[in-house]
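User: I'll paste a sequence; please echo it back and then give the predicted structure.

Assistant: Echoing your sequence first, then the prediction.
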Amino acid sequence: MLEQIDPRKEMSEKEYKSTLGKAQVRLRELELEIFRKQVPVLCLFEGWDAAGKGGAIKRVTEALDPRGYTVSSYAAPHGDDRTHHYLWRFWKNLPRAGHLAIWDRSHYGRVLVERIEGFCIEDEWRRAYHEINEFEAHQVSYGMVICKFWLHISKDEQLRRFKSRELDPYRSYKLTDEDWRNRAKWDVYWQVVEDMLVHTSTPLAPWTVVEADNKLYARAKVVRTIVDAIERQLN
């Protein structure tokens, strides 16, 4: 699937401002509509390290009334989360009716980093595909809109962004040893991402792969995709 997607799609600054601006205005209007009709919306973001998840999320939230959404960021489970089923901590942060929940990383860590790093055994991560599909199907049957984004960048673009962060004293904190270790496993991650997309992109909750070498194109596509998904639900 990823081999068929060219992450280098371009968008000019002029086109970006126009496209994003219109999409953000519409998203703000839809935020009021989903509140009136009590429709919950979940937007989750996965992607390569330095793919631009934070920047895309910012372009979503800056269009919204802050009373109508929450943002949750997920890392490795710790404390009480480790004593429960892995989906437990995500259940807690699902959107209320009429609100949006935005997740930076998600339950897909089970079949991504946890699989690669051996934090769960093979039977567990294989079973997780079905568990995740069922989890999402329950939410959709309740009336939830689910938007799932994989931000896809090329290996060369990732290296360029890593080096840019490394040289910038204001952004160097974003680059960690773990990022470099993950990059060294690029080919392994590629196959694991392919497996995830194949097994969990369903008619009820499909994945949107975002071509993200160009940050402008990626951000505009994310907001536009959310708008389209909400409009389909409301119509």
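The radius of gyration is 18 Å. The beta strands are 41-47, 69-73, 100-104, 145-152, 207-211.
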